[in-house]
Queue: 2 jobs
Job 1
Amino acid sequence: MTEFDKVIPPGGVGKVTASLDTSHYKGPITKTVQVTTGDAAARPVVLVLKADIVTVIDVAPSNTPVLRTTVDEPKPTELTVSAGDGKPFDILAVTADPSLRVAVRPDPPTPAARRPMQHAHGRPLATGSSRYLVTITPTPKAPVGSSIANVTLSTNEPKAETVIIRAVLSVTGRVQVVPQRLEVQPGPETPVLHVKISKPRGGTLKILSVASSDPEFTATTSAIAKGREYDLAVRYTGKPGRGPLSSRITVTTDEPRQRTIVIPLIGRL
């Protein structure tokens, strides 16, 4: 945000004040402000603002970690939460969405050097350290596909009473879909697109239904290896030169965690 003197008398001095919200940054940043005047002979002036943002409580490697895992094979991800000034602080409580399980411990482990003080949250969850390891593990409630789940740490640091971690979940189900989206390109022939739907492990797979959200596309399945692998064929039945499209193919299965599989259909005809 900038504030500036709009009128400067001849021989006078003007002032430009630039402010920057640093709440979403950390580390070195560079921002510029371009000043243009009514003097046709004067070139625009570029003001450069440089800063090195040190957060009160830092989450490394990122407060938006990507958690990649497979159904029934959860993989934990470990983050470091530390004080920017190196002073000890307490983690009072942790709340997380149902799709995540969270554990916190000091790093390195600290002996109980002092009796934890009582806070509004009750006894602190972890105390006496300037650095903690936060382990985040997807739970069975994590949906298959991509989603966002939040973790909130409550601390006794007055300038950072709440630390929010937004985890990006990428959960691979037992049913594999390749490719995960279909793209149509214009051409001399009516396109027929194919998707392989398979379940390499576990019980057998049954395709219950397929449907297209666009009436000019039909979708059918045929078994390559019954109960294991299927071919989904998508055909265009409309006229050439239709233009851009954005539709979807919906497949329903008997797989408990993937009852519905949606395949985006995009492109141009």
Job 2
Amino acid sequence: MSTLRSLAGLTATAAIALVGWSCEANRTALAPAGGPQFHFNVFQCQPLKMTGGGRIDYPPGTADKNPPASHEYETFGAHVIASGQFDENGVCVADKGSLEWVDHRPEMEVNGHPLNLHATSITFAELAVDTDCSDGAVHWGGILRVENTHQDGYDFEVWDCDNGEPGVGHDGFAIRVPALGYEVMCPDPDLPPAEPSCTLTGGNRQFHPTH
């Protein structure tokens, strides 16, 4: 069994709920397992830009940091830019973007190193208009590579929330890679910010007004 298949096995339960996911389904985010999703269901295709980076202490994904020695956290840098254009398939395409994601949890190590996901292509980006993210929210994604193994071609999606300043304790971010059975999502609607995004314990997400 390959190291990457072992990684997928760690979250096999979550993967069961993702079997129906496909590139065509990118425009409609699936509800997290365990109940309906109250945000990130209604989207508009319009110009947008989101930048910044952050840290999430998942689990549990709240505003509280886990003990440093636990290494139970994730860090990332990500941005996306879109001009609000549909392609011939009705997908709201992204113009450019990037994602670098590192999961520092010991149980998620691959080949002796923290799991490192790197986007090779950003394919869609749409404005979420049904969230309580005060400054802006974006659902976007594309294709990534697992840097630890150099395996490429995995679809991913993120839920990205700018909920005012400072970013710590207010902004949020979530990611899912269905083919790996991997996700860092916080579907509790009683926790800020808009679920399924997890609360940042470091960094900042910045939504930029566009015209």
